[in-house]
């Protein structure tokens, strides 16, 4: 199956008489252009290019792929593992050259924020009250960290719908988070279905790494502030002011 995949007989019969020599297979990981072969009995099979699809999706015996033919030999594919669960793949973040340069230069353009008790930025109240007393310069939202906020790569942090829509975050797929020390993390911004409709959330490896690297824990409060100086940029930057729970 690694080098060649035969297509179902019934499907091949439906396409009888049509000239077919190539196909496009699309998945959540990208698109693959695959050469279509034909045997003497008129059956079709994927050949050149199929092995790249197999390798990229780490297909093994017991896995299966559901193909939806969209017309003109264009297929949408969903990959499942042997437990019948959809396979999860590492998030691949690809920035444009312009965006990449902007991210590389961000550290030089931002002032370092610090919210340590030594500098007197905390008033010694609760983390939530400290966050509420802070005066951000841009749009912001405040959230309290829970045990499920970043425990693993599958964890996520909800972004208030009003904040996401009013700041046009619904069109973004990646945001850059900056902590008080101006260190940067590229984080996937995804849309999650819920009973109340779709909502935006920070999710995946990038968010988990931010959570771990900043030693966030249950009870900490974070103020997420949108950086307005980057408003015309291709990169959405959010500075995260962290107010830790002191135990």
TrEMBL record:
<dbReference type="Pfam" id="PF02362">
    <property type="entry name" value="B3"/>
</dbReference>
<dbReference type="InterPro" id="IPR015300">
    <property type="entry name" value="DNA-bd_pseudobarrel_sf"/>
</dbReference>
<keyword id="KW-0804">Transcription</keyword>
<keyword id="KW-0805">Transcription regulation</keyword>
<dbReference type="InterPro" id="IPR039218">
    <property type="entry name" value="REM_fam"/>
</dbReference>
<dbReference type="GO" id="GO:0003677">
    <property type="term" value="F:DNA binding"/>
</dbReference>
<keyword id="KW-0677">Repeat</keyword>
<feature type="domain" description="TF-B3">
    <location>
        <begin position="142"/>
        <end position="243"/>
    </location>
</feature>
<keyword id="KW-0238">DNA-binding</keyword>
<dbReference type="GO" id="GO:0005634">
    <property type="term" value="C:nucleus"/>
</dbReference>
<feature type="domain" description="TF-B3">
    <location>
        <begin position="1"/>
        <end position="83"/>
    </location>
</feature>
<keyword id="KW-0539">Nucleus</keyword>
<dbReference type="InterPro" id="IPR003340">
    <property type="entry name" value="B3_DNA-bd"/>
</dbReference>
<protein>
    <recommendedName>
        <fullName>TF-B3 domain-containing protein</fullName>
    </recommendedName>
</protein>
